[in-house]
């Protein structure tokens, strides 16, 4: 097959291994780029034919990197069974079973032997169920995330030329020989050789480790590599390596597959607000649980030793070893009960469930921690264009020949010397990937493709009755002499073309900047007027500012002719002494849903700030329309230069104290650079002047927005207009570039946070009661009222089911009625503590009443000291479980709501799991027998159990009447101390858990595994087109 072409994949791979001068020399030895294209049977202008794609894919391979093999179910089972507590339980159960079977005498009670046998078997069965549930959960998550990654890669597109037309195709469909249009902000999808370039600068640090940008072009370095970022300029390349034959593909395959490229260090360093709080809580609970478990074992051993060896004078025998072994099992189960090991599962389930739902709300979550962090956001720094506005731009005003016109003027009314030059400037001095496509339906507006500002200018050309395509045909892209592409420093774009015996440069950009570089302007009737400082001020005052006050973006168009070739590298000299052709006012209407969304954010305690590159008057006008600025509100509106001066001291060093004087009142930052945005975000995050510290979300679409997106707690990249570099730096991608989608992210984030708190409220009540009952039971009756298997059922099974039930509650708009929690507020609120303590007291009173006085009014045999299963202790177990199920319903409300049943019907998963738990409990009580240490209950016994269980719902209403302010507040360790001590210990364990697992404590492992359980595959591809996803019911 390779005989159809002049190269095979091995030869092309060898060619692309060369870089810099060596690569250019090898290309020249092969006859240059033209000869390579000839051997690959590709036209440099028209690309390949669609009919050749299948053959090329067969010969050179597909642009797909095989994913790392998924973990098998048996491997997941093996990983799940590695928990220290489970291993100790299995060991103790095994020893107990062996002692029961092989070490006994004829005088031993057969009933006691059977009880010991069934209890050991019960532990085995329970552990097997727990391991299977964990393994199935991990398997489900892995399949879900792989499906999400496949969907994402299926939507990733890139601009290429095939059959002479510009097409936007899936990255996976790119083949060797395709001609790719490369532009500023792209993440290159394949290896290739430069055909044509305009100031092309590429960041190859991901491949080489070198941070310096590499200049690419036919006269420089001609090699382009997949996985590298285009930081400036534009151009075209012919694809020479795809998939596993590309340079990035080769490296990834060496590392073990596509997912091996995950940024491990970033995942380790980035810890969300919730994870920090959970780590603190888990450490404290673990320490308390360990202390109580050890104390329980010591008390039981001492009591039984005194009874057996001192009082009764017995000698140490095998039966005592079995007794002590059962005591150790009870101690371990107390530890298991004390630790909320269902918490990692609850976090994972809630995040995974929310991520799937957020896709329908146009939020593509790249890092799972961002989902819940967004729920704590206190500030949003938003771009203007496309986020707050529609990003469908139209020229609605113009200043041509010293005349301001609204709407589109007639071309015949414009002096020809101005009109022809202006049309040529707008057509040539724009990215050739920018174009207008006819509407899909008759009468529909043209579809804008590419940069929306340039689309507005091209639309203005068409409205004047001219064709920008015919002008571009006269000046094809490969014949352009020089292009100074737009970036955040220039805030302008310039293109040089050959004109007669000389050259002409066309420039467009921000009006104030372009006017300052002009020495003349066309006046009425096409006469030239000198651009004095007075004329410039008059134009800004009478033309630019009025347009800006109406919310229009103003763009100036200018040009300059050269008789001879200047030094194109001296940009400041070249782009000067310009002649201004016109100024246009471009309208970008505010999205109709944005004012309502911003009002919701403000009601929810979130401050919205606009950070834009537009001038201050345009920014102020849009901010007022959006509701960011309100009448009679004392706020700051600054330009980037003024902001920079205010935050620096006399030595030019940024001072946090100076930032703290600005950011609380700052609402609009205009004419801002990416550095200004970064400094603002960093300053707000590091500020300590607010009570709970700020959690900041930021939007960005440009390559230079990357640092601010990285620095923010949650970075939002634009899915439709954002560059690949911005998307890589982000945590969430807005698929529709709409601010309202960010509000939905807040909604889902708060829902995740609240769902975890609901589970904690439920879980801790269960743990407190079970631990205290086990401990005091050991002290008072020398046995735990709850058997080991019963506690495992309550803890390991019901907690898993509880996490499934409580982690899947849907969000409601009521979540936006409260203020954000912030960065340092305790995870357990006073209302939660009140509920946990209050319900625990009720359950403990009921349990101990049953324990010490139950036989008197329950009409059952006293089970204390009986040494076997009894209806008495079965009722204690049954009442505890039923109270727990009723408390699960009450735990759905966190903020003191009276109606605990509100919204219950909307979560069918909760209803199903709750009913399933109840049915299983009935079966355990009636038919569990010796395995669960139960005796079947009579109907009147069940009535007593149900009566006391329902009583907790009445008691909960009484608890709500107690003011939350009277509840003692729980203080956590300082976060700085936590980061230094707790998280460092957890991190050490994370990396050594496969080598020294037996030396670590379960509760450390549980919280550190949050990272491993909630990893998102590394998204290395771009997302340039909008997803077609169903919108959710939460249209805010």
Key features of this structure:
single chain; 1036 residues; alpha+beta; 49% helix; disordered C terminus
Descriptive overview:
By secondary structure, this protein is α+β, with helices and mostly antiparallel strands. The chain is built from 36 helices and 26 strands. The strands form four sheets. Strands 10, 11, 14, 15, 16, 17, 18, 19 and 20 form a nine-stranded mixed β-sheet that branches. Helix 5 packs across helix 7 and helix 31 packs parallel to helix 33. It is elongated, with a radius of gyration of 35 Å. The C terminus is likely disordered. It comes from Gryllus longicercus. Belongs to the cation transport ATPase (P-type) (TC 3.A.3) family. Its main location: membrane. It is a multi-pass membrane protein.
Architecture blueprint of SSEs:
Layout lengths: L8 H8 L3 H10 L2 H8 L13 H8 L12 H8 L3 H19 L7 H45 L2 E6 L2 E6 L8 E5 L7 E13 L1 H4 L5 E3 L6 E2 L4 E13 L5 H9 L8 H6 L3 H39 L6 H21 L3 H19 L2 E3 L3 H5 L5 E4 L11 E7 L2 E4 L9 H13 L6 E3 L9 E3 L2 H12 L4 H7 L7 E3 L7 E8 L2 E9 H6 L1 E5 L5 E3 L2 H17 L3 E10 L8 H4 L3 E10 L6 H10 L3 E5 L4 H11 L9 E4 H7 L9 H5 L5 E5 L3 H13 L9 E5 L5 H6 L2 E5 L5 H6 L2 E3 L4 H43 L6 H19 L23 H28 L13 H20 L17 H20 L11 H22 L14 H6 L1 H11 L9 H12 L23
Parallel strand pairs: 9-21, 9-24, 17-20, 21-23, 22-23, 24-25, 25-26
Antiparallel strand pairs: 1-2, 1-3, 3-7, 4-5, 4-6, 4-7, 8-26, 10-11, 10-20, 12-13, 14-15, 15-16, 16-19, 17-18, 19-20
GO molecular function: ATP binding; ATP hydrolysis activity; metal ion binding; P-type calcium transporter activity
Organism: Gryllus longicercus
Protein name: Calcium-transporting ATPase
């Amino acid at each position: 097959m390779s005989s159809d072409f002049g190269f095979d994949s091995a030869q092309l791979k060898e060619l692309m291994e060369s870089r810099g001068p060596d690569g250019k020399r090898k290309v020249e030895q092969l006859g240059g780029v033209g000869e390579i294209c000839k051997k690959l049977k590709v036209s440099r202008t028209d690309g390949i034919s669609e009919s050749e794609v299948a053959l090329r894919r067969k010969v050179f391979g597909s642009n797909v990197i095989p994913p790392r093999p998924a973990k098998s179910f048996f491997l997941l089972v093996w990983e799940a069974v590695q928990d220290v507590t489970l291993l100790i339980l299995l060991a103790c159960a095994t020893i107990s079973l062996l002692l029961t079977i092989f070490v006994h005498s004829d005088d031993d009670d057969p009933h006691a032997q059977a009880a010991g046998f069934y209890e050991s078997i019960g532990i085995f069965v329970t552990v097997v169920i727990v391991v299977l549930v964990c393994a199935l959960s991990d398997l489900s998550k892995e399949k879900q995330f792989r499906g999400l990654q496949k969907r994402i890669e299926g939507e990733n597109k890139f601009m290429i030329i095939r059959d002479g037309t510009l097409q936007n195709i899936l990255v996976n469909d790119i083949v060797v020989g395709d001609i790719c249009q490369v532009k500023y902000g792209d993440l290159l999808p394949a290896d290739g050789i430069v055909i044509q370039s305009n100031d092309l600068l590429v960041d190859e640090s991901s491949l080489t480790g070198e941070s310096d940008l590499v200049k690419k072009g036919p006269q420089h370095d001609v090699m382009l590599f997949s996985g590298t970022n285009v930081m400036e300029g534009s151009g075209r390349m012919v694809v020479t390596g795809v998939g596993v034959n590309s340079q990035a593909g080769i490296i990834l395959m060496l590392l073990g597959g596509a997912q091996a490229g995950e940024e491990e260090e970033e995942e380790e360093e980035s810890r969300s607000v919730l994870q920090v709080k959970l780590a603190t809580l888990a450490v404290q609970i673990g320490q308390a649980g360990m202390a109580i478990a050890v104390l329980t074992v010591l008390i039981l051993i001492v009591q039984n030793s005194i009874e057996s060896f001192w009082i009764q004078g017995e000698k140490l025998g095998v039966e005592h070893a079995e007794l002590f072994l059962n005591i150790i099992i009870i101690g371990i189960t107390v530890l298991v009960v004390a630790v909320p090991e269902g918490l990692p599962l609850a976090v994972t389930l809630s995040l995974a469930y929310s991520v799937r739902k957020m896709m329908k709300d146009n939020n593509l979550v790249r890092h799972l921690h961002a989902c819940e962090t967004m729920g704590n956001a206190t500030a949003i720094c938003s771009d203007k264009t496309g986020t707050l506005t529609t990003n469908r731009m139209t020229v609605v005003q113009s200043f041509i020949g010293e005349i301001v016109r609204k709407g589109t003027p007639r071309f015949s009314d414009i002096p020809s010397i101005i009109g022809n030059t202006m049309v040529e400037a707008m057509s040539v001095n724009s990215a050739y990937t920018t174009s207008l496509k006819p509407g899909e339906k008759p009468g529909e507006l043209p579809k804008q493709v590419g940069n929306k500002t340039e689309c507005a200018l091209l639309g203005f050309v068409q409205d004047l009755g001219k064709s920008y395509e015919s002008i571009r045909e006269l000046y094809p892209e490969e014949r352009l002499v020089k292009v100074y592409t737009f970036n955040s420093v220039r805030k302008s774009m310039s293109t040089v073309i050959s004109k007669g015996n000389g050259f002409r440069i066309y420039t467009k950009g921000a009006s104030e900047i372009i006017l300052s570089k002009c020495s003349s302007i066309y006046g009425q009737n096409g006469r030239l007027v000198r651009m004095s400082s007075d004329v410039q001020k008059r134009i800004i005052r009478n033309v630019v500012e009025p347009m800006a006050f109406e919310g229009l973006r103003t763009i100036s168009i200018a040009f300059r002719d050269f008789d001879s070739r200047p030094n194109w590298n001296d940009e400041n000299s070249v782009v000067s002494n310009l002649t201004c052709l016109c100024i246009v006012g471009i309208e970008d209407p505010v999205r109709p849903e944005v004012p309502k969304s911003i009002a919701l954010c403000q009601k929810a305690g979130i401050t919205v700030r606009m950070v834009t590159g537009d001038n201050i008057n345009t920014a102020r006008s849009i901010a007022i329309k959006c509701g960011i600025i309100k009448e009679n509100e004392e706020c700051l509106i600054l330009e980037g230069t003024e902001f920079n001066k205010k935050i620096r001291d006399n030595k030019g060093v940024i001072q946090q104290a100076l930032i703290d004087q600005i950011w609380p009142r700052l609402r609009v930052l205009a004419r801002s650079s990416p550095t200004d945005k970064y400094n603002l975000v960093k300053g707000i995050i590091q500020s300590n002047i607010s009570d709970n510290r700020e959690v900041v979300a930021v939007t960005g679409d440009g390559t230079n927005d990357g640092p601010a997106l990285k620095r923010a707690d949650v970075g939002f990249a634009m899915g439709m207009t954002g560059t690949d570099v911005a998307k890589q730096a982000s945590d969430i991608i807005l698929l529709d570039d709409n601010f309202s989608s960010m509000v939905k992210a807040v909604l889902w984030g708060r829902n995740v946070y609240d769902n975890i708190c609901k589970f904690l409220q439920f879980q801790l009540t269960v743990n407190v009661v079970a631990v205290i009952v086990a401990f005091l039971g050991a002290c008072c009756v020398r046995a735990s009222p709850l058997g080991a298997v019963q506690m495992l059922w309550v803890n390991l099974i019901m907690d898993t089911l509880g996490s499934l039930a409580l982690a899947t509650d849907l969000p409601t708009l009521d979540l936006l009625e409260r203020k954000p929690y912030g960065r340092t507020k305790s995870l357990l609120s006073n209302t939660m503590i009140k509920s946990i303590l209050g319900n625990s007291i009720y359950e403990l009173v009921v349990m101990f009443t049953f324990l010490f006085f139950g036989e008197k009014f329950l009409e059952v045999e006293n089970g204390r000291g009986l040494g076997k299963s009894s209806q008495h202790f079965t009722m204690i177990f049954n009442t505890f479980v039923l109270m727990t199920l009723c408390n699960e319903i009450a735990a759905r409300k966190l903020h003191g709501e009276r109606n605990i049943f509100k919204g219950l019907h909307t979560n069918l998963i909760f209803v199903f799991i709750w009913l399933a738990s109840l049915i299983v409990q009935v079966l355990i009580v009636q038919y569990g027998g010796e395995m669960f240490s139960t005796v079947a209950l009579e109907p009147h016994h069940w009535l007593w159990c149900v009566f006391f269980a329902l009583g907790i719902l009445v008691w909960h209403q009484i608890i709500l009447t107690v003011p939350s302010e009277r509840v003692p507040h729980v203080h956590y360790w300082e976060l700085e101390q936590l980061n230094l001590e707790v998280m460092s210990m957890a991190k050490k364990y994370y990396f050594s858990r496969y080598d020294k697992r037996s030396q670590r404590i379960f509760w450390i492992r549980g919280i550190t595994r949050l990272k491993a359980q909630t990893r998102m595959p590394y998204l290395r591809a771009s997302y340039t087109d909008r997803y077609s996803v169903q919108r959710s019911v939460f249209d805010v």
